[in-house]
């Protein structure tokens, strides 16, 4: 998406005032949203960073291990994911595949809070500029886009 299209259509509803470049720059560069990014985590990383602490993380891992030993059609996928979690490199919690697996396991196995806890480990603050692939938008860029 071009910056001009972003500013003139305002698809995120930020309320750009096209006559106030400082306001646009502040709005578009504010790190006020979040997005899922690549984040590799092992069992150790989950025990260390899972919301709710190590006891909640351990309970979640035990739940996943028990599920992996079941006859459920998704059990094989979870079993393979657990193998990755057992390595020092871990598994990419932010990957599309892992995110899809977490969604598929909710609410039949994982609670929404458990899914969101794992997802939060791969979530980072970002700006609208970053979301549209522009990194950081400067006043000069805004002037050129609106010229």
Walk me through the structure.
The protein folds into two domains: 3-32 and 127-146, no CATH class; 36-124, no CATH class. The radius of gyration is 20 Å and the shape is elongated. The model has no long low-confidence stretch (mean pLDDT 96). It has 147 residues and is mainly alpha-helical. It has helices at 3-9, 21-29, 43-49, 54-68, 75-85, 96-104, 112-120, 128-131, 139-146, and strands at 33-36, 40-41, 91-92, 123-126. It is 54% helix and 8% strand. The strands form two sheets. It has a two-stranded antiparallel ribbon. The protein has a two-stranded antiparallel ribbon with strand order 2-3.
Features:
147 residues; mainly alpha; two-stranded antiparallel ribbon; 4 strands; 8% strand
In short:
The chain has 147 residues and is mostly helical. It has helices at 3-9, 21-29, 43-49, 54-68, 75-85, 96-104, 112-120, 128-131, 139-146, and strands at 33-36, 40-41, 91-92, 123-126.
Main beta-sheet annotation = 2 strands, antiparallel
The portion of residues forming beta strands comes to: 5-15%
What is the CA-based Rg, rounded? 20 Å
Mean pLDDT: 96
End-to-end gap? 17 Å
Count of alpha/pi helices: 9
Looking across the biggest beta sheet, what order are the strands in?
A: 1-4
Number of strand segments: 4
Q: Which regions have little confidence, pLDDT < 50, spanning 5+ residues?
A: none
Q: Report the structural category.
A: mainly alpha
Number of domains: 2
Helix-residue proportion: 40-55%
Order of helices and strands: HHEEHHHEHHEHH
């Amino acid at each position: 998406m071009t910056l001009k299209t972003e500013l003139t259509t305002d698809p995120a509803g930020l309320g750009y005032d096209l006559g106030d470049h400082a306001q646009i720059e502040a709005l578009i560069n504010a790190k006020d949203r979040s997005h899922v990014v690549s984040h590799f985590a092992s069992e150790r990383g989950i025990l260390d960073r899972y919301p709710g602490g190590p006891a909640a993380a351990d309970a979640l891992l035990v739940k996943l291990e028990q599920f992996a030993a079941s006859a459920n059609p998704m059990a094989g996928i979870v079993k393979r994911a657990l193998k990755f979690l057992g390595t020092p490199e871990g598994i990419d919690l932010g990957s599309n595949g892992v995110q899809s697996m977490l969604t598929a396991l909710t609410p039949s196995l994982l609670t929404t809070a458990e899914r969101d806890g794992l997802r939060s480990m791969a979530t980072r603050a970002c700006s609208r500029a970053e979301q549209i692939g522009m990194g950081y938008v400067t006043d000069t860029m805004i002037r050129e886009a609106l010229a």
